[in-house]
Amino acid sequence: MLELIDVTKVYRGGKRAVDTMTMRLGPGMLGLLGPNGAGKSSLMRIAATITRPTSGKVLFDGVDVVARPDALRRHLGYLPQDFGAHPNLTAREFLSYLAAAKGMSARSSKARIGELLELVNLTEAAKRPLGGYSGGMLRRVGIAQALLADPRVIIVDEPTAGLDPQERVRFRTMLADLAADRVVMLSTHIVSDIESVASDIAVVAGGRLLRRGTPDELLHMARGRVWDLLVSPAEADAVRMGYVVSRMVRTAEGVRLRVISDAPPSPGAVPAAPDLEDVYLGLVQPAPAPSRAMGGLR
Ligand SMILES: Nc1ncnc2c1ncn2[C@@H]1O[C@H](COP(=O)(O)OP(=O)(O)OP(=O)(O)O)[C@@H](O)[C@H]1O
Q1: What residue owns the CA closest to ligand 1's atom 31?
Q2: Protein residue with its CA nearest to atom 1 in ligand 1
Q3: ipTM for the assembly
Q4: Quick one: pLDDT band at residue 289, thresholds 50, 70, 90?
Q5: Of 203-212, 238-247, 283-292, which gets the smallest average pLDDT?
Q6: Whose CA is nearest to atom 2 of ligand 1?
Q7: What is the layout of strands, in order, in the sheet containing 226-231?
Q8: Residues 106/112, Cβ–Cβ less than 8 Å
Q9: Residue 209 and residue 25: Cα distance in Å, rounded?
Q10: Ligand 1, CB cutoff 6 Å, lining residues
Q11: What is the DSSP code string of the chain?
């Protein structure tokens, strides 16, 4: 069990990137969802013992890992957002080098690296220098290095950035499998990255935890507050001035809008079944003035 308790991070210069966040994580996948600048990377670096919190506690199985980071590090696989690999090394050489740095024996690491290359589908490319890899292939090397020591806790920061749709799906499924018996914490600003795999979603913005729940619990919040309407282009502009609009499609008949609001935004609005994108936008997007769109979702 990994626990973040009242964690705050204030950077030099005064930026409060994480503001008294508390999260407890057991086995399973927690999707940390928030816009750019929400504080996701800062929180993950703190959870991964890379950065010290300004205040608050991080406990792993009850042990204070701010004071004793090694208690977590030997069980941790971490994939930072800016994961960089040496361009002249092959995938196999790079992973062997990291395994040696982690103190793994050459024999056990050889077998493990073979397994991992298979898992991330890089066996065939493993003898080529990393400099010639695509963004997606490098991400897969990144996840392989995070899994080297068969970690109990896996922290991956925006792992799908730069992946094509097929790679995204493969990556999500792989992490979901790993989450069966491990703590997996994954950050993203893309709702579809986590809605099909995370049973537990934390929405963060401005350094604060806004909501946490299962997809069903989050969807429940938005029930009765999502509306579809078809309007003229001029009316669409007016609606966008006053409401949170989660989708807008121009069609031959007019503009089809999806609006988040407690009350119907217009007499012709039809209630719609919410999805997680609606919930997310309702939480993180400031309501345009006049502020009547967000109340119920906060
Ligand atoms: N080392 C630092 N020094 C000062 N400010 C920082 C530092 N790192 C991050 N910040 C600021 O803290 C806030 C949160 O940044 P953070 O990277 O944690 O957010 P994020 O949700 O991961 O966003 P992104 O997806 O853009 O990385 C931002 O305003 C960022 O500019």
Answers
A1: 37
A2: 11
A3: 0.96
A4: low
A5: 283-292
A6: 11
A7: 244-251, 254-260, 226-231, 270-271
A8: no
A9: 14
A10: 11, 13, 15, 17, 34, 36-42, 81, 189
A11: -EEEEEEEEE-TTS-EEEEEEEEEE-SEEEEEE--TTSSHHHHHHHHTTSS--SEEEEEETTEETTT-THHHHTTEEEE-TT----TTSBHHHHHHHHHHHTT--HHHHHHHHHHHHHHTT-TTTTTSBGGG--HHHHHHHHHHHHHTT--SEEEEESTTTT--HHHHHHHHHHHHHHTTSSEEEEEES-HHHHHTT-SEEEEEETTEEEEEE-HHHHHHHHTT-EEEEEE-HHHHHHHHHHSEEEEEEEETTEEEEEEE-SS-SSTT-EE----HHHHHHHHHSPPPSS--SSGGG-
Q: What's the whole-model pTM score? A: 0.88
Q: What per-residue confidence (pLDDT) applies to 298?
A: 35
Please give the average per-residue pLDDT across 117-130, as a whole number. Answer: 91
Select from 21, 40, 42, 190 the residue to mutate for testing ligand 1; criterion: most ligand atoms less than 8 Å from CB. Answer: 42
**How many Å lie between the centroid of ligand 1 and the Cα of residue 87?**
27
In this predicted model, what pLDDT tens digit does every residue of 11-31 receive, in sequence order? Answer: 999 999 999 999 999 999 999
